[in-house]
Amino acid sequence: MNLDTREPVFDTLGALEAAALLRELTAGLIAVADFDDALTRLVRIARDAVPGVDCCGFTALRAGEPAGVAASDTGRAELDDLRHGPETPAMTAIHRREMIIAPDLDREARWPAWTGRARGLGVRGAISAPVDVDEQVIGAINLYAESADVLSPGHQLVAMLLAEHAGLLLAAVRDRERQAARADQLDSALLEEGVVGQAVGVIMTQRGCPAPEALAVLRTAASSLDIPLREVAERLIRTVSRSRDN
C-alpha cells in the first residue's frame, strides 16, 4: 500500500492491508510504558497508514483528571480538546458508545461551534469511534479528512478496527504504568528500610552510582544467589563491618 497516495478508494482496502495496519499499531505500542506517549504514537500511525485520512486525534477521559488529548497535527489539536467545549463528534461517540460519522461538515448541524473551527482548519469530514481502555479511562479515536465525502464505509470499518485494537493496546500500556508505579513505591519503601537502605548506601559509595542503580545491583545479586534481598543486604553490611574492624 502506497502510504503517500491519499486516494478516495478506501473501499478497496483488503484484509491484508488491514492486518498490516493493526500489526504496525501493535509494533508501535507494544513496549510503550507511558499512556500519553502511546496516544501520540497511535494517532501518528493512524494518520500515516490510512489512505484518505489527513489527520488523526484522540480524546481521552480519565477518572478524576482533566480530559487528555493527542493529535497527529499540533495545529489541529483543538479539534480533540474539550477545553473548547464538549459538543464534539468525539464526545458524542463516547456518550452514545457508537461510531459517529460526519462525511461533509458543510452539511453538518450537530456541533455548530466545533464544525466552524474544523472547517477553519481545513477539515471537511470526520469519523469518531469510541474506545474502551479500562475502568478508569475511555475515549474516542478521531479520523479527519480535508475533502468532503472522502470518508467511506471502508473508513468506518477501519475506525472500528482501530478502536477495538487500540483499546486493548492502551489497556496494556495502563497496566505497565501501574506496575511501574508499584515498583517505584516498593523501591522507595526498600530504600527507607534499615539494612537494605544501608546496603544501598554502601554500593552507592563504592560505585559512585545513584540509589536506583545501587538497588538494582543488590537485586541482581539476590537473584544470582537465589536468596532474599534482605539477606544479601545483611551479608554486605557484615562484610563491610568486618573490613572496618580489621
UniProtKB/TrEMBL annotation:
Lineage top rank: taxon: Bacteria
Keywords, comma-separated and alphabetical: Transcription, Transcription regulation
Tagged with keyword Aminoacyl-tRNA synthetase: no
ANTAR domain location: 176-237
Gene Ontology MF terms in the entry: RNA binding
Alphabetized InterPro entries for the sequence: ANTAR, GAF, GAF-like_dom_sf, GAF_ANTAR, WH-like_DNA-bd_sf
Record Pfam families: ANTAR, GAF_2
Protein name stated in the entry: GAF domain-containing protein
